[in-house]
Write a structure and sequence with these properties.
By secondary structure, this protein is of the alpha/beta class. It contains 14 helices and 18 strands. Strands 7, 8, 9, 10, 11, 12, 15, 16 and 18 form a 9-stranded mixed sheet that branches. The chain binds NADPH dihydro-nicotinamide-adenine-dinucleotide phosphate. The site of NADPH dihydro-nicotinamide-adenine-dinucleotide phosphate has 33 residues, from helix 1 and helix 13.
């Protein structure tokens, strides 16, 4: 018997709402609160009539007093933040003030610097601990399931993990020459930033898209993938014993990269405000407004995603390699919840993480990344809620 307040009503939120309704034993009541209330109302309309009681609210999640008032009125057991990373700190402030548990899927980013770091949210550790409340950070797929996979590998197959390669492959095709699979502003900020990987205690920086590899993904096929900085590198570097190197690769098609380069060259991906017809606008935010809304890609996207982690390390003095991954079909997701696989693979883990806290399995005071919790109950729920995983003990390694 519990209540969740879901903040945001976009692509990921839609999946979270569907999945909470499928898990109605845990989520007896949910409130969908977002900036544009009509989007929350549309979601409620789609799913009303089941066992989970749904209400909606309007909230500006940049405004702490507004959030506090909503939390005090609705009295949720947890707040699931699936708005944008810019809102993480204000929502955490409101959770502190009201002593409410918190979960998100992406780390805080200041509006004016595209820098993916946990430092701002880790600074809340003492205050959450003292308040006796739990914050789960980065509980989507990557970050999220990649951290749970790492904790699972560590617990069951390794004494020490020395290397991790996280491989994020989207073999989907939406038929547009250029579109992003989740919020365009966040997505483009991520892929146009410098790359980096962790090696022997330090981050090594690379130029954007400087390192390219080719990998043959199960159920998808051969794809080009590029090394990116990604937020879970920072927490895994601290939380995985004996780790020497962590890299993150994401696949991109040629058309996507060609368009991105062109948009970059003309200044459209910049986050520096410019003056336009007497008004300040941010080019990247304008670009977002003209690109297809990721929430509309569902019906058009065909193909599969394959996201997972390859580990190298030792067990009982012997070298071990282990690959654990999930394959998700865009059209299957669309049939089930009306969204493509990127929103699906993010929303399912967010719901499961919240259920872990609500059922006491991941309940401890403080601010945590997912690999700091027991992975086993989460891994079971992944299979139950649509993201089954596969293991390979003799994988092809990335050179
Ligand atoms: P969308 O842009 O589709 O949705 C964002 C939602 O947040 C919208 O409903 C938007 O409202 C709402 N919102 C934005 N600002 C505010 C505000 N100030 N107050 C209240 N609501 C607000 O994004 P996605 O659903 O694609 O992504 C959601 C989150 O998931 C992002 O943080 C993203 O980084 C993360 N993500 C994580 C992944 C992972 O694997 N870990 C993968 C993919 C995404 P409005 O409609 O008014 O704009």
């Amino acid at each position: 018997m519990s209540r969740a307040l879901i903040i945001g009503a976009g692509g990921v939120a839609s999946v979270v709402v569907h999945k909470c309704c499928q898990n109605s034993d845990v989520f007896t009541e949910i409130c969908i609160a977002s900036r544009t209330k009509s989007k929350s109302d549309a979601l409620k309309e789609k799913l009303d009539g089941g066992k989970t009681k749904i209400t909606t609210a309007q909230v500006d999640a940049d405004n702490v007093p507004e959030l506090v008032a909503l939390i005090k009125e609705y009295k949720p057991d947890i707040v699931i933040n699936v708005a944008l990373p810019y809102q993480d700190l204000t929502i955490m402030d409101a959770c502190l003030e009201t002593k409410t548990d918190y979960l998100d899927t992406a780390n805080y980013e200041p509006l004016d610097t595209a820098k993916f770091e946990y430092k701002w949210q880790w600074e809340y550790r003492d205050r959450f601990e003292k308040a006796g409340i739990t914050a789960v950070l980065g509980c989507g797929f990557d970050p999220g399931v990649t951290g749970v996979f790492s904790a699972y590998a560590m617990k069951h197959y390794f004494d020490e993990i020395h290397e991790i390669d996280i491989l994020d492959c989207n073999g989907g095709d939406h038929g547009y020459p250029f579109a992003t699979n989740f919020n365009p502003e966040i997505n483009i900020r991520e892929v146009s930033a410098k790359g980096s990987y962790w090696e022997n205690g330090d981050f090594i920086e690379t130029e954007p898209m400087e390192i390219k590899k080719v990998y043959n993904f199960a159920e998808v096929g051969q794809k080009d993938m590029y090394l990116l900085h990604h937020e879970e590198l920072e927490s895994l570097a601290i939380n995985i014993k004996g780790i020497k190197r962590i890299r993150f690769f994401m696949t991109f098609g040629e058309s996507y990269l060609r368009h991105l380069k062109c948009l970059e060259n003309v200044g459209m991906t910049s986050i520096e405000p410019i003056e336009f017809e007497g008004k300040q606008i941010v080019p990247l935010q304008f670009l977002k407004a003209v690109l297809p809304d990721p929430a509309t890609l569902g019906p058009r996207t065909v193909g599969k995603t394959n996201i997972g982690c390859i580990y190298k390390g030792v067990k009982n003095g012997k070298e071990v390699t282990y690959y654990v991954y999930n394959v998700c079909d865009h059209q299957e997701c669309y049939k089930e919840v009306g969204s493509q696989a990127i929103s699906y693979t993010t929303g399912v883990p967010a719901m499961i993480g919240a259920a872990m806290v609500l059922t006491g399995k991941w309940k401890k005071p403080g601010v945590f990344n997912v690999e700091e919790f027991n992975p086993d109950p989460f891994m079971e729920e992944l299979t139950r809620f649509g993201l089954p995983w596969k293991e390979n003990f003799n994988p092809v390694l990335v050179d």
